[in-house]
Amino acid sequence: MADILMSAPLFVALNDDAAIALRASMVEVTFAKGGVIFSEGDGGDRLYVVLEGKVKLGVSSSDGRENLLSVQGPGEMFGELSLFDPGPRTATATALTDCRLFGLGHEDLKEWLTGRPELAQSLLQALAQRLRRANEAMGDLVFADVPGRVAKALLDLSVRFGVQRGDGVHVTHDLTQEELAQLVGASRETVNKALADFASRGWILLEPRGVTILDVDKLNRRGA
Ligand code: CMP
Predict the structure, then answer these.
(1) Where is the chain membrane-spanning (predicted)?
(2) CA–centroid distance, residue 72 to ligand 1 (Å)
(3) Can you tell me the distance from the alpha carbon of 169 to that of 157, in angstroms, rounded to the nearest whole number?
(4) What is the pLDDT along the chain (224 residues), one digit of tens a residue?
(5) Ligand 1 close to Cβ of residue 89 (< 6 A)
(6) What is the pTM of this model?
(7) Count of Cβ atoms closer than 10 Å to residue 162 Cβ
(8) Is 219 touching ligand 1 by the criterion CB < 6 Å?
């Protein structure tokens, strides 16, 4: 657990003493699978680091359609935008699995940011990485077809949640097919068709809420 926390953007630049002090100002919270951590439009007063489990970040349109921005796993952070740009939460955070999080009040974080420029720098880096990813996802929505986007999403999930096994990379993403479609920004039918096609070619093995990637190279080429 300590390692997971230390790898989070908040902690990565701090020495041991500072990390212990920062850890002491954080509060541990748990959510059961399906629990809403906060909703889009809420006032935001804290950010979270995932210790265990997965959290999905989603937005919905006025006609009720859902889009997933991201799935956050151990060591990843969310809920910081409403600190840097005070305003309502930009997405709804929901526990995809039972999860354990560390929360840090924005006011507490502000004090740390004033005293520790290295912490501000690593948070800026995390924000910049998020912007890069968002730009790439936007480009893919315009330039890539649905199977290409599905291939990329599976590879991204495999980098973050995959475990190498004898037959390939086993990825427990904990997403339903509907949620996977929301992450890719396409209909469930089109995403299912792409998954079935990859499976019939022997590139992946479909499992409930997971997938084993048997041929990373082929999937990489399809997502390129
Ligand atoms: P905040 O707006 O406080 O609450 C919702 C959180 O979702 C936000 O902070 C970010 O941490 C996260 N978030 C918003 N947009 C994205 C995105 N495009 N990719 C990943 N995470 C995001």
Answers:
(1) none
(2) 10
(3) 11
(4) 567 888 888 888 888 888 888 889 899 999 999 999 999 999 988 999 999 999 999 999 888 889 999 999 999 999 999 888 888 999 999 999 999 999 999 888 888 888 888 888 888 999 999 999 999 999 998 899 999 999 999 999 999 999 998 889 999 999 999 999 999 999 999 999 999 999 999 999 999 889 999 999 999 998 77
(5) yes
(6) 0.93
(7) 22
(8) no
